[in-house]
Amino acid sequence: MNEPVLARLHHLMTLREEVETLAGPVPWSPAADWTDDDAHLCLHLDVPGVDAGSLEVHEDGDTVTVAGQRPAPERLRRGERPSGVFRRTLSFPEAVRPQSGQASLVHGVLTIRFEKRHPTISVPSSDLGRAPQEE
Amino acid sequence: MNEPVLARLHHLMTLREEVETLAGPVPWSPAADWTDDDAHLCLHLDVPGVDAGSLEVHEDGDTVTVAGQRPAPERLRRGERPSGVFRRTLSFPEAVRPQSGQASLVHGVLTIRFEKRHPTISVPSSDLGRAPQEE
């Protein structure tokens, strides 16, 4: 092959590599829920297949950042599942006590439980609808 | 309150319930990967928080259907994670032996391993690039 053809071939191979990079791992932003009870806020994050050792949790004022990763599958035939590194920063729905988070990882769901700064007072449902009485 | 106001209030409450139904559980279609080795095809499905007892797997010719569910969280403040029932039917990337699937659920990932109908023959990489020799 002559020089221009080789150069063109090289160019095509580079293009192909770039296209393959574009079609690479799906970017990963794990779905999150916030739930609460009277004294706690709980963050639930779907992180199936993530090793506990790869997870990092970092609180910073009114946000919490969770990072982790899972390896890309080998010998992939068809792929939809995200892989590689993720990093997600979420704002607390309300103020929590600093560094109060307790994390657990069960069946691929990371749950972090924070203490509310201002716990709410639970009112039994039988008392709802009645006007507060002065004492 | 007079009758028209009560009727209007009832109407508003019905509307609110309808809006809450619309904003209900996110429909769930778990992400799936297919990987292979020479003799097997593997399906990997992200099902974090799903109880093994709720999972059903059904093979039907050239497709496999997986169904399951996880309960909706209580006292949700902000929600992104899908919940409720899912059902996904996937076609095999190539033919498998009927009823050969072996399922396991680890860290929220369901893996089902099927035997290929036509296992491929692995060629050691050191033999690649050499022309086959007649015997």
As a percent range, the share of strand residues of chain A is: 35-45%
Q: How many beta-strand runs of chain A? A: 8
The class by helix and strand makeup of chain A works out as alpha+beta
- Could you list the spans of chain A in which at least 5 consecutive residues all have pLDDT below 50? none
Oligomer: homodimer
CATH class category of the domain at 26-72 and 82-119 in chain A: Mainly Beta
Span of the ends, CA to CA of chain A: 99 Å
Total of DSSP H or I helical runs spanning 4+ residues of chain A: 1
**Main beta sheet of chain A: strand number and arrangement?**
4 strands, antiparallel
**Which bin fits the share of residues in helices of chain A?**
10-25%
Biggest interface = A-B, 31 and 31 residues
Family (chains A, B): Belongs to the small heat shock protein (HSP20) family.
Protein name (chains A, B): Heat-shock protein
Domain SHSP (chains A, B): 23-131
